[in-house]
Specification:
alpha+beta, 5-stranded antiparallel sheet, 3-stranded antiparallel sheet, 7 helices, about 50% helix
Length: about 280
C-alpha cells in the first residue's frame, strides 16, 4: 500500500491483528536503535530511528482507526431524502502520514550528521564517518525524491478529492461519486444496476478499486472508480440488488429508517438482512 498507493482496506480482525504486530515490531526495533544511537550517535543510526519511529506511529494510527471502523461499521447518514455512504479516509490519511515521514528523512539525516560531529570519535575514523554521512544524506535524498514523485502523481491527495459521500441511495436512483471526479454518476433503479465484478487496476501511481456495473441501458458494463469504499462486491451487490428487486422498499431511503436497512444489508450476518 505504501509504495503502490493501494487504498483497499479490509476492516476485519485479521487486518487489525497484523497491523498491531507490525506496529509493535517497528516500535521495539526503533527503541533498540535508540539505545544504539545513545551509545554511538552515527548519522545512519539516527536516520534509521527516525524512519522506524515514523512507521510505528503510522501503523498505530492505522490500527486505532481500523479498530474504530470495525466497531462502528460503515459511515452512513441520512440527509436530503437519501442515505449517503461516506468514503473511508483511513488509507488516504495513512499514506499522507507515510509521505510526511519520507519528507522528514532529509532533515533527520542532517540532524544525525550534526550529532555525529558533537561526539568524540577517534581521529582515525574521520574518513569512514564522512563516507557514512554521505551515504546517510544520499539515502535520505533518494527516499524524499521518490516520495515526492509518487505523491505528485496520485489523484487521491486530500487536496484533490471531494468531501461528499462516495455512494448515495435515493428512492429513484443510485449515485456513485468517485473521489477525484467533480461530478457524480447517477443510475436509475429502473435500469436494474448489477455489480458484475470489482477489480484493482493500476492508474498512474495508484492501485484503484473499480466496480463493473451492468444496466439495462447498456450492453457493456459501466466502469466506476469506488476507491475508498470499503465494501466487498457481495456487500455492494446485496444492497443494490435488494432495492432493484424490491421497488416497494425504495421509499424507506427517503426516511431515517433507510440507514438501518442499508446497515443491515451491508452486515455479513444473514439474520440481520431485511426480508
Amino acid at each position: 500500500m505504501l509504495l503502490s498507493y493501494k487504498y483497499q482496506i479490509s476492516p476485519n480482525g485479521a487486518s487489525l491483528a497484523v497491523t498491531l504486530i507490525y506496529a509493535f515490531c517497528a516500535s521495539i526495533v526503533a527503541l533498540g536503535w535508540m539505545t544504539v544511537v545513545w551509545l554511538a550517535p552515527l548519522s545512519i543510526f539516527v536516520l534509521g530511528v527516525a524512519w522506524l519511529t515514523g512507521m510505528a506511529l503510522s501503523l498505530f494510527y492505522f490500527a486505532f482507526a481500523l479498530a474504530r471502523r470495525i466497531r462502528r461499521g460503515p459511515s452512513l447518514a441520512h440527509s436530503d431524502g437519501a442515505v449517503s455512504v461516506a468514503y473511508l479516509r483511513l488509507p488516504i490519511n495513512v499514506n499522507t502520514l507515510f509521505f510526511c515521514t519520507c519528507l522528514s528523512m532529509f532533515p533527520f539525516a542532517l540532524i544525525g550528521c550534526a550529532l555525529e560531529r558533537t561526539s568524540t570519535f577517534s581521529s582515525g575514523l574521520t574518513a569512514l564517518l564522512l563516507a557514512l554521512d554521505a551515504v546517510t544524506i544520499v539515502s535520505a535524498s533518494i527516499i524524499t525524491v521518490i516520495a515526492v514523485v509518487v505523491h505528485s502523481r496520485s489523484a487521491y491527495k486530500p487536496s484533490n478529492i471531494h468531501g461528499g459521500p462516495i455512494l448515495t441511495f435515493t428512492p429513484t436512483y443510485l449515485e456513485f461519486h468517485p473521489l477525484p471526479s467533480p461530478t457524480p454518476i447517477r443510475i436509475s433503479w429502473d435500469q436494474a444496476p448489477y455489480v458484475t465484478a470489482i477489480d484493482y487496476p493500476t492508474v498512474r501511481a495508484d492501485v484503484i478499486q473499480r466496480a463493473h456495473i451492468m444496466t439495462t441501458a447498456s450492453p457493456v458494463p459501466t466502469l466506476i472508480d469506488i476507491t475508498c469504499l470499503d465494501w466487498t462486491q457481495d456487500q455492494l451487490q446485496r444492497t443494490i440488488g435488494y432495492f432493484v428487486c424490491n421497488p416497494e422498499r425504495r421509499g424507506i431511503l427517503a426516511t431515517a429508517g433507510g440507514v438501518d436497512v442499508v446497515r443491515a444489508l451491508v452486515s455479513d450476518n444473514p439474520e440481520l438482512w431485511p426480508r
